[in-house]
User: Fold Pyrimidine-nucleoside phosphorylase from Streptococcus sobrinus.
Amino acid sequence: MRAVDLIQKKRNGGQLTTEEIQWLIGGYVKGTVPDYQMSAFAMATYFKGMTMAETRDLTMAMVASGDQLDLSAIPGIKVDKHSTGGVGDKVTLILAPLVTSFGVPVAKMSGKGLGHTGGTLDKLESIKGYQIEVAEAAFIKQVQDIGIAVIGQSEQMVKADKLLYALRDVTATVDTMPLIASSVMSKKIAAGSDAIMLDVTVGDGAFMKTVEEAEKLSRTMVDLGKEVGRQTIAVMTNMSQPLGQAIGNRLEVLEAVQIMQGKGRVDIRDFICQLAQIMLKLGGLEVGLDDIEQYLTQGQALKKFEELVAAQGGQVQDIYRPVKTKFVYEVKAEQSGYIAELPALYFGRFAMEIGAGRAVKSDQLDYDAGILFDKKVGDAVSEGELLAKIYSNQEIPQKKITEFAKNVTINNVKVHRKEILKIID
Ligand code: URA
Assistant:
């Protein structure tokens, strides 16, 4: 076989066979198919797409490119979750301990952030001492002992995704439906959980900009999961504004802790409770929303989060440490009315530029940098009232602060937002 023939076949809209896909991915991981040919293949896929059979073959070839975890030593139905990426997305920090506090084990491998989207691992690493690298046996033992572990994926798992994702990131091929589906599902399948809840984000701050695109991706991933015997549900969630109040690693840990103390915004609390209900059902438990809210706000979830932090070497007291930056900028409303829009992409990029995220993989993070919104879409606001605080260790020119304020749209109509747009199972 020759890579050039497979690229040509895809470019001309042909369907690759199982053997051809296995050969291509195998060759890419071995280094016999170079980056430039894989880039061309990714771009041909962007334009021509893939059939369901090709997407499944690609997913399984990626799973086979590295080690796979066997979680059978952990009793019960192991439930995993994955978000396709968002701004201010601290859901895992709250949801994983909440679900575990009901006795459903969560053995989770998370990722780092890149670009305007944040990563759970960065948020956890902002807690002093927290270790994301945990050996397989210790990972399994931790879930057996306390029901939860959140670690980074080992270098040996889904090697093809690590290479391909980095390549897609610099060749404008990240937002390619079959490549996203195979990237997400190969990692989830290799990570070994029995059931998977996918949080498919939709809107300005997500890869999928429309409900139609997100639904197509959701159906593909749900079908992939089912084909390999993993019960999979996709929840399409609204990412048109940042999630919750905080963007930035430490600020998000603090917001997560506040929510688990029964504080924080009610809309986020309700959203997390609904996701928890779906995850618990996947884990074999039918629990009412009132009971879930009680566990979330009365300390059970927080206790589990503290146990998680301690088990992975983190200093528990550090989760309560407030952020401290050289500069704190207050952004005030220029008029009265209701918040109509807070574009997630703009604010995600803003936070990244002041150090909360990475423009390129090698960038160092400033854990304390970020944005804390006082008002969200649908909230009433009076002229001169605080909209947001920006925490930064770099001085920010006034021009940028003015531009920040201009990106908060205020008008006279109260917008009602739905956080969960659709559930695909
Ligand atoms: N998240 C992933 O894990 N992979 C993608 O390709 C996109 C989002």
Notes: Residues 84-85, 165, 174, 179-180, 183-184, 207 surround uracil (CB under 6 Å).
